Amino acid sequence: MNISTAFAPPFKLVAPFFIIGVSTFVVTILLMFGFEFENLHYFNSSTLAWVHIFLLAFVMLIILGAMAQLIPVVLEVGHLAVDLYYAIYPLMILGTLLMAFGFYNLPILLPFGGVTVLIALFIFLIETFLTILKVKKINFIISTIIISNIFLLLGVIIGIALALNYSGIFSFDSFKLLKAHIFLVFFGYVGTTVMSMSLILLPMFWLSHSFTWVYVKTAFILLCFSICFMLFFTFSSITLVEDIAYTLCISSLFLYFLQIFVIYKKRVRVEVDIYFKSMLFSYFSLFTSLSLFFIYFFYSKDNLLLCASWLLFVGFIGFLISGHLYKIVPFLVWYERFSIFVGKKRVPMLNDLIPKKSSNFQFLNSSIGVIIVSLSFLLESDTLYKSGLCFLTLGVIFLLKDILYMAKIKEETYVF
């Protein structure tokens, strides 16, 4: 994979995505203190509000900001209309707030929030597809970007239909559509994007090379088939089709985990930094989550599903994002503010821009918090639940502090 920074947009464009996203991460953890432990269920209005805040204003904002940088870097073409990104994050925040209030108190706000999010994502999709049209040769990474964005568009459209149903405007069986919505947005877009971007970022940061892509390519194909089967199940009543969708999805994620292990074994860099530790915890959470989903498939206990979902969301996605932010933000800051001085003055290394003690403190508290909350779900202990959230809150606050610190680094601090 050829990597070129010549077409990357300015840091001031993507910085709000990262800062607002991590700030939302802090808010979502604080919101969990108000949950009644026994009422945690995926059909509970508070749970639905939390999930949408977490996914839209944290995960999606971070991904959109990262894609603003990575798409031109990977495609080696400039954005067609990069200034459109300045409209995306305000619309995403507004849409998320409307949907959150809609789930909590005013269901009539859900369609308005959904349409606002749709407009934001539609701007992103149009700009992305028009930028891809400038590419002369389509490779595996580019094809995954195209397919993932198609899944995103379908998922948002189904989400609008669910919002209309939840607000009472329409009336239909929402349970099947909810599954299709989850598969299209979380696995179809977030999942395939994580798979493709991992093949760029992990080898670059770990200095891995000469590894096979067969596992992730197979995982990508299985995941696409899984989503198609779930869509087919949405418009049918064949239980076997749903079982096949779940089986293919879990199998694809296990294959992706195997691909990450192959990249890890081929690494040259052995430094145990904050990125390395975050990735290990992230993929440990993914493996544990998949194992719990597999067990739930046979025993159908709600606490297993709750714990598996928690580890997938906060353990895997949360640490995957935080770990990469400790690499992406310093790199973008260094490239924009220090690269021009190379060969002229003394400039810092990338690791010099990372607050090591603070980042390690963040990792320690966040990882302890995730583990304790996971145990609280398995043991059904409210005391453990609140204790784990205390550790996690401290961790995510320090994550936000570190991102703000790195984003505000000035040239005069390091250049001599």
Automatic annotation (TrEMBL):
Tagged with keyword Transmembrane: yes
Keyword Transmembrane helix: yes
Transmembrane segments: 12-35, 47-72, 84-104, 110-133, 140-162, 182-207, 219-238, 244-264, 276-298, 310-335, 361-378, 384-400
Keywords: Membrane, Transmembrane, Transmembrane helix
Listed name of the protein: Membrane protein
Organism the protein comes from: Halarcobacter bivalviorum
Lineage, opening ranks: Bacteria, Pseudomonadati, Campylobacterota, Epsilonproteobacteria, Campylobacterales
